[in-house]
């Protein structure tokens, strides 16, 4: 299980924090002065901080069409973990990791399922924050339960939150996610999409108001949302997001038949987003 990351470059397709850095030339001054030099995702230039990812969240409450989660020791792709840690095991691991790597400034939880679909991530962050209040806790989520849990998230020391928002048009979103479970009800199609989008934007608004820095990940899916990235950026900016990361689709699962975006499509999507918000680039 690879848990200590020092500025990895790879984008991630699900609701994960990535190690991509701010485009320096577009941001000569720190956009996030309180995080510059402390959080590799929000720092300019080569990162010197370490980040620890804790795989504690076992399940998910939505079904993204491109997501195929698995546990195995072989694959190195988004959605795959070697195993799962319990909150107490995760706390012990943070202590051991800090002994080995005192440069660690960030503890992130991004999966392998959704971090707010179960209690495991918040229990872990609460334990970590109680013992290591100086660390930045960093959460990635699909946003379905973000507004509902916002106060508890912030109280657990979470300062940076990544929300994956792939569309703000329910018709488009309904083709990117086949179902959600919300308040014990399974919703499908446009009804699921409308609920997810509304909750994502309300969640971003709430945690931004509470002081968190919000990054949005958007998976770029050719033929589905490639002409829609500017609209996503506009909506999440209005809700309070500070930065957007366009992540090229890895064709798999229900979207295995689609092509991966070309470099030109990725550049066009980033340019459309950059009209609204700062964007990440490799
Ligand atoms: Fe997979 Fe759930 Fe993340 Fe979607 S939100 S990419 S289904 S883990």
Task: Chart the SSEs and their pairings.
Elements: E1 4-5, E2 21-22, E3 50-53, E4 62-64, E5 70-71, E6 80-81, H1 87-100, E7 104-109, H2 120-131, E8 136-141, H3 146-155, E9 158-164, H4 170-173, E10 177-182, E11 185-188, H5 189-209, E12 213-220, H6 229-239, E13 243-248, H7 263-274, E14 280-281
Parallel strand pairs: 3-7, 5-6, 7-8, 8-9, 9-12, 12-13
Antiparallel strand pairs: 1-3, 2-14, 4-10, 10-11
Helix pairs in contact: 1-2, 3-5, 5-6, 6-7
Bound molecules: iron/sulfur cluster (SF4).
Architecture overview:
With 282 residues, the chain is α/β, with parallel strands linked by helices. The chain is built from 7 helices and 14 strands. It has helices at residues 87-100, 120-131, 146-155, 170-173, 189-209, 229-239, 263-274; strands at 4-5, 21-22, 50-53, 62-64, 70-71, 80-81, 104-109, 136-141, 158-164, 177-182, 185-188, 213-220, 243-248, 280-281. Strands 1-3-7-8-9-12-13 form a 7-stranded mixed β-sheet. Helix 1 (87-100) packs across helix 2 and helix 3 (146-155) packs parallel to helix 5 (189-209). Mean pLDDT is 87; it is low at 1-28. Iron/sulfur cluster (SF4) binds next to strand 4.
């Amino acid at each position: 299980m690879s848990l200590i990351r020092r500025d990895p470059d790879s984008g991630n397709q699900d609701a994960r924090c990535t190690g991509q850095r701010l485009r320096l030339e577009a941001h000569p001054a720190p956009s996030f002065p309180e995080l510059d030099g402390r959080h590799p995702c929000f720092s300019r230039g080569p990162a010197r901080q370490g980040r620890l990812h804790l795989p504690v969240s076992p399940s998910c409450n939505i079904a993204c069409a491109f997501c195929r989660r698995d546990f195995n020791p072989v694959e190195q792709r988004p959605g795959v973990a070697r195993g799962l840690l319990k909150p107490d095991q995760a706390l012990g691991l943070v202590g051991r990791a800090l002994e080995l790597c005192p440069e660690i400034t960030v503890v992130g939880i991004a999966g392998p399922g959704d971090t707010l679909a179960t209690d495991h991530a918040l229990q872990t962050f609460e334990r970590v924050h109680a013992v290591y209040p100086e660390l930045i806790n960093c959460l990635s989520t699909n946003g379905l339960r973000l507004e509902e849990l916002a106060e508890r998230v912030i109280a657990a020391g979470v300062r940076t939150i990544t929300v994956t928002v792939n569309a703000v048009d329910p018709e488009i979103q309904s083709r990117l996610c086949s179902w959600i479970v919300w308040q014990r009800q399974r919703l499908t199609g446009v009804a699921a999409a409308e609920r997810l989008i509304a909750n994502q934007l309300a969640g971003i608004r709430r945690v931004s108001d509470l002081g968190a820095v919000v990054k949005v990940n958007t998976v770029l899916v050719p033929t589905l949302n490639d002409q829609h990235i500017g609209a996503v950026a506009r909506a999440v900016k209005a809700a309070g997001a500070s930065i957007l990361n366009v992540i090229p689709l890895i064709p798999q699962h229900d979207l295995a038949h689609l092509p991966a975006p070309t470099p030109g499509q990725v550049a066009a999507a980033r340019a459309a987003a950059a009209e609204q918000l700062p964007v990440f680039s490799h």
